[in-house]
Amino acid sequence: MNTLAGNGSLVTEFVLAGLTDRPELQLPLFYLFLVVYIVTVVGNFGLVTLIGLNSHLHTPMYYFLFNLSFIDLCYSSVFSPKMLMNFVSEKNVISYVGCMTQLFLFLFFVISECYMLTSMAYDRYVAICNPLLYKLTMSHQVCSVLSFASYGMGFAGASAHTGCMLRLTFCNANVINHYLCDILPLLQLSCTSTYVNDVVVLIVVGINIIVPSFTILISYVFILANILNIKSTQGRSKAFSTCSSHIMAISLFFGSAAFMYLKYSSGSMEQGKISSVFYTNVGPMLNPLIYSLRNKDVKVALRKFIEEVFNKKQNQKKSKNHLSFLNRTILKFE
After folding, report:
1. 141-150 pLDDT, tens digit each
2. How many CB atoms lie under 10 A from the CB of residue 75?
3. Helices in the chain by DSSP H: which ranges?
4. Of 81, 89, 256, 319, which has the maximum CB count within 10 A?
5. Mean pLDDT throughout 296-312?
């Protein structure tokens, strides 16, 4: 751990402190977060599969939802296995390269989700404010450009943060006061100046908060104004219901993220870690539930999918019974 690494860092591995150091909480928390991770994987993978297989859901809205679920699936898998190991191992070690890789992937998927939610807000704006031009405006090419731009912003932001982190030197302190390799806990361990990193954090985080937040806010101002102009109560209710799931997902993502970083910036690392659970674990778990339970199209598609699987199994069972009957009949004649 004290040999010189190729990038100039004296530390070749880090120790993740985890969520808590209280022994009596380790096993209960392990089972809790294992259930959370399983629900997250099953929910998001299920939604990705359902949208991919059902042609009725091949629309711009579900195209973005497909990407959101894919991001959440990958995002939670970046840190959850290591987090679970923390609860059952005495010392959760991660290599320097592994830590930087985790940091890059974590930031890539977080920033990508931020812009994917922004793209979804724009989609809802066009659907409600310009319904006659919706198919033309939200063409396959436009949706592809918006999704690739989301991933592009994620790659650019993650590269900027990780590149700046690689230039730092970590001398003796190697215990990260977190359950994952995040920017602020890592900066606290550096034995060289973090001025450039602080500036990059200010610029990149500022852009990735201001641009999506402003875009989403403007979109929903126009959406709200349009909904209020609808004369019938039923029409207003229907228009608002198409946005309610997205509003819940946005509130959960941006609200918990802002709360987490406010806690970190106030110097309360322990409270920051606890609040980050909502940002990193609860959000990806709830998103597929929010969109499936509150969405009629998804529920109908899921019901049809289950019926098709059930009918397929029933037909296979009937075929086996019929084949067995034929075999018995043949044996009697023999």
Report:
1. 999 999 999 9
2. 22
3. 23-53, 60-88, 96-129, 134-137, 140-166, 183-187, 195-228, 233-265, 269-277, 283-293, 296-333
4. 256
5. 73
